[in-house]
Amino acid sequence: MMLNRPRRNRQNEVIRSMVRETSLSPDNFIAPLFVIDGKNQNIPIKSMPGQSRLSIDELVKEVKELYSLGVKCVALFPAIDEKLKTPDAREAYNRDGLNFRSIRAVKEAVPGMLVMGDIALDPYSSDGHDGLVDPKTGEIMNDPTLEVLAKQALCEAEAGADIIGPSDMMDGRVGYIRMALDESSHQNKLIMSYTAKYASSFYGPFRDALDSAPKKGDKKTYQMDPANSTEALREAELDIAEGADILMVKPGLPYLDIIYRLKEMSTLPIAAYNISGEYAMLKAAAQNGWLDNDKAILETLTCFRRAGADIVLTYFAKEAARLLNK
Ligand code: PBG
């Protein structure tokens, strides 16, 4: 006799699915997409097999496909022409700029698709930093950057973005942007804050995709130290106090403990960003036949949910939605 046999609850798929603690659905996904200027452009990103930089006409096609698969939110990342990059990153708030044209095009083509706009200066800055750089000292200037971020946020809101996603990690930006939005009658625009964004080596493929790597130095004076976790709670407390609607952790897979800690401490929904380097690792292994692509994708995304993420930003969104719709 043995009273406790955990295997009894695993004996067939009906029982397993009855006791399953975590669910995964395309409702949980946000698909990040890269946009470039031009027409008919679909340029594969070498370090992210299956992902491309898309011109707006191609972006619209992709968005329609995602929507039909049940993915109802996209995050847009524009790759800006080098010639438009300046030290003051003024292209970040050029109303006719690629970012805002993309947002408008998506909302026009598929009004039900939620659009998340990124807030940070790196794609527009000739220094490749998320904030403005002091030309004398090389320091990233916090408070002058807030002004620019708020302008960028207002342009995104006006273009029709539903969610504003500050990924810059400047201090005080959530509150500053919230105030700017509310003062311009954009009180219903959500802020999904990149609350705990770490200075990670796993952003490499993303920086390839946008040619946005810092020209000098690194991002360690604003992005968090991968060795810290209690500090993430401090960032979360501040973002909550400043009016964030959703808290995000980034990267994802090596930081599941941070997702868990934020979920435990906050009543706000938690998002996780399954970033470019994580995508590249899985794809490289799958292409070599070392991992089963489909199973590894679904397991990965389920684990984000188990750790406490309500939402997952993932380059696997389309593939995973297809698998879940089968
Ligand atoms: C920059 C930004 C980065 C990512 C999203 N926004 C890179 C960075 O901070 O250098 C990375 C996303 C990914 O790697 O998939 N504001």
Automatic annotation (TrEMBL):
Subunit structure: Homooctamer.
Keyword field contains Calcium: no
Active site (catalytic residues): 197, 250
A Gene Ontology biological process term: heme biosynthetic process
Statement: the UniProt record of this protein carries the keyword Lyase: yes
MF (Gene Ontology): porphobilinogen synthase activity; zinc ion binding
Protein name (Swiss-Prot/TrEMBL): Delta-aminolevulinic acid dehydratase
